[in-house]
Amino acid sequence: MISRRRLIGSLAAGSGGLLLAGCDRLNASPRFRELLRGGEALTMRAQRLITDRGALAREYRPEDRSPVFRSNGTSMPSSAEYAAHMANGFADWRLRIDGLVARPLALSLAQIMAMPHRTQITRHDCVEGWSAIGQWTGVPLRLLLDIAGLREAARYIVFHCADDFPGARYYESIDLIDALHPQTIMAWGMNGARLPVPNGAPLRLRVERMLGYKHAKYVERIEAVASLAAIGGGRGGYWEDSNDYEWYAGI
Ligand SMILES: Nc1nc2c(c(=O)[nH]1)N[C@H]1C(S)=C(S)[C@@H](COP(=O)(O)O)O[C@H]1N2
Ligand SMILES: [Mo]
What we know:
Blueprint: H1 4-12, H2 18-28, H3 30-37, H4 40-50, H5 80-87, E1 94-99, E2 105-108, H6 109-113, E3 118-126, E4 130-140, H7 141-148, E5 156-165, E6 168-175, H8 176-179, E7 185-190, E8 193-194, E9 204-206, E10 219-225, H9 238-243
Bound molecules: ligand MTE and molybdenum atom (MO).
């Protein structure tokens, strides 16, 4: 019998397809699509039952990349602080990692870029009706959380962003299953170059089993929490608070 680890490994190497073919068939069935539309709690339970949340998102070949990967939402945070960071190439910028961790951290971009990294070519799906395939390079979130040392009470990871919307900062959150997933990375590279400002420089989340709005750009602080109730409007994200988007946006 092929072990789960070997199966995931072969998928990661691009030679598998077993799990993915299975998912495609499920997705094509109207009954399954209906299930997925039947409310968030049901979506989450159905996906936990039917799909494996540890399964990898499909990865593509370099030639599959979209010629243009558009920017959506904020294309440049408007604060003076961000402008100053941008002007000196983010040399003094720091990523803070705090909340329910044993060792709060403040990491420079150089430190983050020197860490082990992963490169993946994936499809980004925005609920506004567009998709694009891009290549992302970054440090696994799992590694950052291991270094900081998650406390036992931690249940969610919150991403605080540098951009302001009317009345609120952009933020997002995911649970620990997605946070520790092997394709969940804090990306500093895109399509072989440094992450461009319109796509979230210097650092953005890629959480490949989730819809586009979960992929927080301009992340400046990662916070581990036990509950989302006290953050923002309490629903786990900017769009969740302001527009009733689903918190669990699995694809
Ligand atoms: N900080 C921040 N993150 C964000 C957004 C944003 O406006 N601000 N937009 C979200 C949405 S809706 C999408 S589809 C993607 C777009 O990523 P892109 O600009 O690289 O295309 O970022 C997401 N993350
Ligand atoms: Mo989006």
